[in-house]
Design brief:
11 strands, four-stranded antiparallel sheet, alpha+beta, three-stranded antiparallel sheet
Length: 442
């Protein structure tokens, strides 16, 4: 497949095999609360084992229409992604019914400890009111994809050991990590998903609620010490040898909820010792350093995140609905978030005053510009009137003095009428007789 893909890439073509590897495949549905940090191949193998059918899983956009929309240069709406399950077209409905046992709203125990909900394709929804609810589920998936936190750990010898069960308890490392309880929200898991990192043989990616970010980063940074302190000792063989030697003298501190290393304690001792050589003024070395994973403070409103009636590791609980057992999925009653009180009156008045001030400033500027234009027009008209007056005076003077005129003027300014002798013609010499017209003959 890799060689074929390279040949197509050289020809500037793409090769995208079907996830289910069937000639005629169809969409079974998409998984609500799924993230891009999950391994699609690992999830496909799990679902194939559950339903005893060959299925495929891929991360792709959620279709929200019944038509096939081709790609174009025009801007389109933002696509919301989720993990989609594909199978043979003639087995899609049957597989969807089988998966309802583990991923429906009535499910409380999940195969690998990750809470997911199977949502049917949009084409299978026929009632208009149900299509509106379908849009609400898509919005919830968009919120999860946008706000979910994640971090990776590359201290394992191989990430394939996540699903290897312990000989005595039959519990896998993945299920144990998903069973770690949150500090902020008791009786709810700390991590939402734990899966293999993308294109890595040793990396493991954790996803968690943003309000659990501080404690989640602390556990990931000291994962070996945490597992050595609380988990099955058999899991210690999963970590790399160099990482185990590095933290051989480290231990997990439950009071500060972080790992204490020999290097960190040595740094603290260096600051406390040799006080006579401390020439800092002021001494900022005594200041406390905040945690690198700062706690994320969110607003009191979470859209539709807390309107689910069942448990999920990314939802805030109040009290569990059932007793806590060894399973990582636990039910609880979501907290009802109170609406933020609105302040009326003051905001409207301030807005109106601001609009009035801006309009008055604009009118004042326009009036000033109009007044300046009138002054310039007045000056231009005055200059033209002066020039016309001077031109008229010059013409009258020329007419009175006779300069440039045809009729001479008298001393009293009256013009004299022309006479016949005013411009007599010159007398020509005699050219012929009284009866001849061509002159005298020779």
């Amino acid at each position: 497949m890799d060689k074929t893909r390279q040949i197509f890439n050289d020809l500037k073509h793409g090769l995208y095999p079907r996830a289910s590897d069937h000639k005629d495949s169809a969409e079974v549905g998409w998984l609500l609360y799924s993230t891009k940090h999950q391994d699609s191949d690992r999830l496909a193998n799990l679902i194939s084992t559950l339903v005893q059918e060959k299925v495929g899983v891929k991360w792709c956009p959620i279709r929200t229409n019944e038509r096939f929309r081709k790609s174009s240069s025009e801007p389109t709406t933002v696509s919301i992604f989720a993990m989609h399950i594909e199978a043979a077209a003639n087995r899609a409905v049957l597989i969807r019914q089988k998966l309802a046992k583990w991923y429906s709203t009535t499910s409380r125990i999940f195969p690998d400890g990750k809470k997911l909900r199977l949502v049917s394709p949009f084409q299978s929804i026929t009632v208009f009111s149900q299509k509106a609810k379908y849009a609400a589920l898509v919005a919830r998936q968009a919120a999860i994809s946008t706000r979910i936190g994640s971090a990776s750990c590359y201290k394992f010898a191989a990430n394939l050991i996540l699903d290897r069960p312990a000989p005595d308890t039959k519990q896998t490392l993945c299920r144990y990590l998903l069973s770690i309880q949150s500090v902020n929200f008791p009786n709810t898991p700390m991590f939402h998903t734990v899966d293999k990192a993308f294109r890595s043989d040793t990396g493991v990616t954790f996803s968690f609620h943003p309000e659990n970010a501080e404690h989640a980063h602390a556990i990931i940074a000291g994962l070996l010490c945490y597992v050595r302190e609380y988990a099955n000792p058999w899991f210690m063989r999963f970590f790399a040898e160099a990482y185990r030697q590095q933290h051989e003298t480290s231990w997990w501190n439950p009071d500060s909820f972080e790992v204490d290393t020999a290097e960190g304690l040595e740094l603290m001792s260096m600051l406390d010792a040799d006080g006579e050589w401390n020439l800092l003024d002021p001494d900022f070395s005594k200041a406390t350093t905040p945690s690198p994973a700062a706690k994320v403070t969110l607003s009191d409103t979470y859209a539709t995140l807390y309107k689910d009636s069942d448990s999920v590791s990314t939802f805030r609980p109040v009290t569990p609905a059932v007793e806590v057992n060894s399973q990582p999925s636990i039910s609880f009653t979501p907290r009802v978030v109170s609406a933020v009180p609105e302040v009326s009156g003051m905001s409207d008045n301030v807005s109106r005053l601001s609009d009035m001030d801006s309009r008055m400033s604009s009118l004042e500027a326009r009036f000033q510009s109009f007044h300046t234009g009138l002054q310039e027009l007045k000056q231009q008209t005055q200059q033209e009137a002066n020039q016309n007056s001077k031109s008229l005076k010059t013409i009258i003077d020329m007419l009175l003095t006779g300069q440039g005129g045809t009729y001479p003027a008298t001393t009293n300014g009256q013009f004299t009428a022309p006479v016949s002798q005013a411009n007599p013609l010159a007398q020509q010499p005699f050219a012929g007789g009284p009866s001849g017209t061509a002159g005298s003959g020779s």
